[in-house]
Each structure stands twice: as C-alpha cells, then as structure tokens.
C-alpha cells in the first residue's frame, strides 16, 4: 500500500480547515440537542440540564476544596447560534476566588492542574458533545454572547440570531501562518534545538492575538475565529504538547543545582500540610514524593497510578506559609516548578513510578533510604537515580541493592559520581 503524497495531505488539511471555518457561520436555531424551543424562547432540555448538574457536582467533589458555588453556566458556541459538530459543552463553575482567602494565582494554577487531571481521567460526552469543565472567578468577564445558567435554568446573556460576516480567506491565511510556526518548532525540537523560549513566545503571541480580537470585535472577530480554527484542527494541542514536552525535559535534568537551605521546622510544616492535602499511600505506583520522614505522598487522585504533576506541590508550600527565599522570584514570574524545587531542597524525593526514576537534591534520611531499598528490591535494581546533571545513572535489572545505595552515599559524602554496575564490572575486567 502506498502512502499519501505530501500534496494529498496538504489538500486534505486545507479541506478540513475550510470545513471548520464554515462551521463558524450562524445557524437558524440553537442546538436542538441541548435546547428545546417553546414559542420564541429556548430552554435547556431537562435531561441535559440534570446531566450537566451531575457532572458539575462530581467535578466539584473531585476538586476537594470547600467553596460557595455562585453559578454553573453553559457558555461558548453551544449557548449560541454558531454551534457545530466541532463544538464542546463549555461548563463553567463560578466561584469567588477572593472568598477563599487563598492566593488567587495559586488557586488558578491549582484549578488548572485539577482540570487537566479531570479531563485526562474522564471522557464525558452529552449528546455526542465533549464536556469541558472549567472553574471561573465571579469577576471574570464573559466573552460569549450567549451564557445560560444551568443552575438557575435561565439565560444570563440571551444570544441573538444574526448573520455575521466572516472573512474565510483572512482566517485561513492567518491560521496557516501560525500552523507553519508551530510545525517549524516541532522540526527544531526533533533536531534537538532548545526551543523553550520560542514555544513560550508563540503561546503568548497567540493569546495576545486572540484577546485583542475579543476586546475589539468579540467572539466573531477574525482573531478569535483563527484561534478556534487552530484549536479545532489540532494545532493548539500540538503547541501545548510541545510546551509540556520541553518542560518535562527540563524538569528531568537537575542542572548542577545547589540546594537552598531550609530549616527542619519548615520542612516538617510542609510535610504535615502535604500529608493532610494529598494523603499517604502504601503503593509505589501512586507515589509522587517520598517525604523526609519516609511517607509516600499519594498523587493518584484515587486512580491506580500517579496522575498529578509534581509541580502541583506548590499549592501546599504556599498553604504552609513559609519563607521560600530565592524562589519568591520564580513564584512571581509564575515559573511552574518553584514549589517542586522548594520541597526537593527540603529533602523531599521526587518519584516517577512510570519510569522508576528517583530524583533528589539532598542525601536521603534513614527513613527515605529504607523506602529506596524497598523500591530497588521491588524492581530488582532496575531504577534511575538522579542527583545532579553529572550524577544521573540508569541501573540495569539485577543491580545489587547495596551498590545503588552506596552510590548515593558516596556522591553526597565524597562527591564520587555514580556508575552503572555493568560499567564497574567492565573496569574490573579490563
């Protein structure tokens, strides 16, 4: 079987993009899968409303944080006349961030992280439309010209059936321009170029581009419709995946990091807060961190394996109310890994069960060594030990437990870089 030519693929991509752009045009009615029409008014179908409220309740319970829900609303194209087969059900939980008493920036990070986990764990559809759940501050402006209160079963912003002029050519040209930029970044990454700043710049550029359109022309602006084209044809996801990929690569390399000295008292405060927030697990597969006292923090969210990002720990550090010293600048710049760096400098060991990777900034405590021995035994020596850029070693199956533990101690006590067992055997042989 012969593969498709590049010309065929480009032609198919263009046809798909043209189909997506056509979906932006307004329909004569709202979606009759979601709303029922009585005279000139639209009301949400009762069974749909019940299901959306059930999903909202489940999501709120999943968040695990007490707050007053001001409203649950449906927004986006399915609350408007420009719905299509590409639409999602945008379900927003409206709360007041200020009422919580927590840092607004940290709350946003926390809710975004939880939303990501929720979406990864759930594939929920209502009437064949995917459901996207989002936490929104009560002060955040609605950008949609149609907003329906699912909680109160009435319109907050009634959509208007009007035909908007859409410049297909302009949207297509700008969409192709951004698609090429993202494709070029993917190609650069494959050639092992450092694209971290480039990815962030493109992300910010697209965000500013879309926002300028929303501010000036609303949701039918060509800027917003170009963004929707990029989201529906998969390019926004490509950019997000690219950002995550290069961020994970940076996180996996401990670039000769010199730990900040935190007090034992502060470390205990954070450990206590983390145990209260995440809970403790007895299963390595669900573990996110090994605390200084040897506790395994449960990062599974009730699943069979770790699903929470290690950077999520920043929320707990903030709750503990300690002085994070030089990491305050990273926090102000919204550098996502600041909390992770703080706890690792305190002696927490980051554990990646999916790769059996053990990442640390300090010599483990006696309790942590006991846990590490259990991990090494469980996987018959096949673990990755990461203590610094120059102290990274992938141990093969069958590596003796004492060899791995002694290698960690030798590095912190004498500065001797660890080696794989097979390398030592080769040296002895020759």
How is the secondary structure organized here?
Blueprint: H1 6-22, E1 35-38, E2 41-44, H2 46-63, E3 71-75, E4 89-95, H3 97-100, H4 104-121, E5 125-126, E6 129-137, E7 147-149, E8 154-157, H5 168-190, H6 196-217, H7 222-232, H8 235-251, H9 264-278, E9 287-290, E10 296-298, H10 314-320, H11 327-332, H12 338-346, E11 349-352, E12 357-359, H13 366-378, E13 384-388, E14 391-394, H14 401-414, H15 421-429
Parallel strand pairs: 4-6, 12-13
Antiparallel strand pairs: 1-2, 3-4, 3-7, 5-6, 7-8, 9-10, 9-11, 11-12, 13-14
Explained architecture:
- Helix content is 47%, strand content 14%.
- Helix 6 (196-217) runs antiparallel to helix 8 (235-251).
- The strands form 3 sheets. Strands 5-6-4-3-7-8 form a 6-stranded mixed sheet. A 6-stranded mixed sheet has the order 10-9-11-12-13-14, with helices on both faces. It has a two-stranded antiparallel sheet with strand order 1-2.
- The protein has 3 domains: 6-21 and 167-251, no CATH class; 26-157, 2-Layer Sandwich (Beta Polymerase, domain 2); 264-429, no CATH class.
- The model is unreliable at 251-255 and 425-430 (pLDDT under 50).
- The protein is elongated, with a radius of gyration of 25 Å.
- The longest helix has 23 residues, at 168-190.
- It contains 15 helices and 14 strands.
- Strand 12, helix 13 (366-378) and strand 13 form a beta-alpha-beta unit.
- The chain has helices spanning 6-22, 46-63, 97-100, 104-121, 168-190, 196-217, 222-232, 235-251, 264-278, 314-320, 327-332, 338-346, 366-378, 401-414, 421-429; strands spanning 35-38, 41-44, 71-75, 89-95, 125-126, 129-137, 147-149, 154-157, 287-290, 296-298, 349-352, 357-359, 384-388, 391-394.
- It is of the alpha+beta class.
